[in-house]
TrEMBL record, chain A:
InterPro entries: Glutathione-S-Trfase_C-like, Glutathione-S-Trfase_C_sf, Glutathione_S-Trfase, Glutathione_S-Trfase_N, GST_C, GST_superfamily, Thioredoxin-like_sf. It comes from Pristionchus entomophagus. This is glutathione transferase. Residues 4-81 form the GST N-terminal domain. One of its GO terms (biological process) is glutathione metabolic process.
From TrEMBL, chain B:
Residues 77-203 form the GST C-terminal domain. Belongs to the GST superfamily. Sigma family. GO terms for molecular function: glutathione transferase activity. It comes from Pristionchus entomophagus. The keyword Acetylation does not apply. Residues 1-75 form the GST N-terminal domain. One of its GO terms (biological process) is glutathione metabolic process. It catalyses: RX + glutathione = an S-substituted glutathione + a halide anion + H(+). This is glutathione transferase. Coiled coil: none annotated. The keyword Oxidoreductase does not apply. Gene3D superfamilies: 1.20.1050.10, Glutaredoxin. Signal peptide: none annotated.
């Protein structure tokens, strides 16, 4: 049977689309990697189901919402865990990560240049408490999973990619911010050493976000 | 075994999935006063928590999706299941905006209800419900938000709309297809049976 066509539309950055690009690249699936400028986005907005990006199109059928996209592609291509219960734990950790990410997002938006703000104050008053609530949990999860290079189970899943991408972004702009979480760092380093992922990371376009 | 507060809140959809599928479960309800003592034993310090043969699973949507998959309420295809996820996550974004007013209605927080209605609830509604109305219409007003069979996002939205109808009557008058879809969902015999017999709670 013929492989479906995949088109991913997002801004010209990693943020909420990168995991989808990585899954498709890891699975060696060709896809149209469409990047929309901030200038062009307003006119496109109303053509999307939820007025947001990323948007995945599979044979022209639209699917919005980043985690729905990641989970769908992960399931198609074998990155959603080795059992239904494990897949559920991947989902649970991803949702916990999303709760943390929602708290730290205002800081990142300032760092990335999308909003104005006192960067140092935001790191101290917003990012640090958010980190201190979530990363001890993640550190424990990495240790309890045997420090095997994955956050859940023993094969690469989309939550590994999600967390590794975020840690990469943090390291890019706030070096040392996660130095109290060596098991997390070690796990992320193992994830990003996966040969095909390493290849993608090295050749992809560099962006601030 | 499902552990949650003695209310519907973020646990109810899981209970409904069990009742709809006829699978017995321990419906473990923790009184508010006892919650602090349990918190440390939860993987993410929060409820609901599902235990499957003693193995814990936290996070409400992960629980709902897992049970829905086990019992056949995820949608008719992988792509439909992905749309169920997408609508649920879009709902979650909306719920995060409106929950502060709901917590005042539930008695968990203080607040000026009228001011919050104007500043918080109405903007949140006006951002999300037009999309949901369109989704219900595009799905042929068939009694489901995605596809042609009951899914966990139907239960999620129906439960929330019931809360809105109770505390903010008239709030969704501009969204007749959403209301008609919720009515159809709540009329499903096994669900109606549970709704009629379940313990009452403010939340």
């Amino acid at each position: 049977s013929i492989m479906p066509s995949y088109k991913l539309t997002y801004f010209d950055g990693r943020a909420r689309a990168e995991v989808a690009r990585q899954i498709l690249y890891l699975a060696d699936i060709p896809f149209e990697d469409v990047r929309i400028s901030l200038h062009d986005w307003p006119s496109l907005k109303s053509t999307t189901p939820f007025g947001q990006m990323p948007l995945l199109e599979v044979d022209g059928q639209s699917l919005p919402q980043s985690f729905a996209i990641f989970r769908y592609l992960a399931k198609q291509f074998g990155f959603s865990g080795d059992s239904p219960f494990e897949s559920a734990w991947v989902d649970a950790l991803a949702d916990q990560h999303a709760d943390y990410f929602r708290e730290i997002l205002p800081v990142l938006l300032t760092i990335w240049g999308f909003t104005q703000g006192d960067r140092m104050a935001l790191v101290k008053e917003v990012a640090t408490p958010a980190r201190d609530k979530y990363f001890p949990l993640l550190e424990k999860i990495a240790k309890d999973n045997g420090l095997n290079g994955h956050f859940v189970g023993d094969s690469l899943t989309w939550v590994d990619l999600l967390i590794a991408e975020h840690v990469g972004s943090i390291n890019q702009h706030l070096p040392g911010f996660l130095s109290a979480y060596p098991s997390v760092i070690k796990t992320v380093n193992k994830i990003t050493s996966t040969p095909r992922l390493k290849e993608w990371i090295e050749k992809r376009k560099e962006t601030t976000f | 075994k499902l552990t949650y507060f003695d209310g519907r809140g973020r646990g109810e959809v899981a209970r409904q999935l069990f009742h709809l599928s006829g699978v017995p479960f321990e419906d473990n309800r923790i009184p508010m006063a006892e919650w602090p003592a349990h918190k440390a034993s939860m993987p993410f310090g929060k409820m609901p928590l599902l235990e499957v043969n003693g193995k814990p699973l936290p996070q409400s949507y992960a629980i709902f999706r897992y049970l829905a998959r086990e019992f056949g309420f995820v949608g008719d295809s992988p792509f439909a299941a992905a749309w169920v996820d997408a609508v649920a996550d879009q709902f979650k974004d909306y719920f995060d905006e409106i929950k502060s007013l709901l917590f005042v209605h539930f008695g968990f927080a203080q607040g000026d209800k009228e001011k919050m209605m104007k500043d918080v609830a109405i903007p949140a509604r006006d951002k999300f419900f037009p999309m949901l109305e369109k989704i219900a219409k595009d799905n042929h007003n068939n009694g489901h938000f995605v596809g042609a069979s009951l899914t966990w996002v139907d239960l999620l939205i129906a439960e929330h709309v019931s809360v809105l109808l109770k505390y903010m009557p008239g709030f969704l008058n501009d969204y007749p297809t959403v209301l008609s879809t919720v009515k159809k969902i709540n009329s499903i015999p096994k669900l109606k049976e549970w709704i009629d017999k379940r313990p009452d709670s403010t939340f």
